């Protein structure tokens, strides 16, 4: 198809699917300490005064907006409409309409992978992103959007290369990354982007 490209050779190489990938993955397991994660995500969900700005999540399964009680951990919160976990340890397929609705309501950052069926690196990215989604379950949400099926969404968000990750927070794009990379680097990118914004 036209209008998009797969990630470049350089991006692909820097995606680290060569030597060292497993080493990085092991390092990731040791480095992301629980305390630092909690500090970062606590900041992400509060404003300067320390008050939670909003406690809502749109269910990516059924589209219902859920208001969460302050004492309800997001990791176990379920949708009042369909009963699904609101922040599951999975990358959920989404649509442009649902994405737009989530950006209007969500209290958690949302990372969206724009992908295409013809894109080989996207399949690798799926596997890596799934590892990260497991890691950050309850802290942020992960979705994927089929760029071939929804070219209008790519135009709307200025996405031209596959795969592209966009981190949305408080309804706005916070950061983006083009090309496949291992889970440890995706995780570092996520945490680094979050830290910069506070
Ligand atoms: Zn639901």
Please describe what this structure looks like.
Keywords: Disulfide bond, Electron transport, Redox-active center, Transport. The chain is α/β, with parallel strands linked by helices and 198 residues long. The protein has a single domain, classed as Glutaredoxin (3-Layer(aba) Sandwich), CATH 3.40.30. 38% of the residues lie in helices and 19% in strands. The protein contains seven helices and nine strands. It has helices at residues 9-14, 21-31, 34-44, 96-105, 120-135, 151-157, 183-196; strands spanning 5-6, 56-58, 65-67, 91-93, 110-115, 141-146, 161-162, 164-169, 172-178. Strand 2 (56-58) and strand 3 (65-67) form a beta hairpin. Helix 2 packs across helix 7 (183-196) and helix 5 (120-135) packs across helix 7 (183-196). The chain is globular. The termini are far apart. The site of zinc ion (ZN) has 8 residues, from loops.
End-to-end Cα distance, whole Å, is 39 Å
- Rg to the nearest angstrom? 16 Å
Q: What would CATH call the homologous superfamily?
A: Glutaredoxin
Tally of DSSP β-strands: 9
- Integer tally of domains: 1
The neighbouring-strand order within the major sheet is 4-6-5-8-9
Counting helices, strands and paired strands, the structural category is alpha/beta
Q: Which fold name corresponds to the CATH topology? A: Glutaredoxin
Listed once per kind, the bound small molecules are: zinc ion
Low-confidence stretches: 11-31, 46-52
Number of helices: 7
Largest sheet: 5 strands, mixed
CATH class category? Alpha Beta
Nearest-integer average pLDDT: 80
* General form: globular
CATH architecture grouping: 3-Layer(aba) Sandwich
H-E string: EHHHEEEHEHEHEEEH
Into which percentage range does the β-strand content fall? Answer: 15-25%
Helix percent band:
25-40%
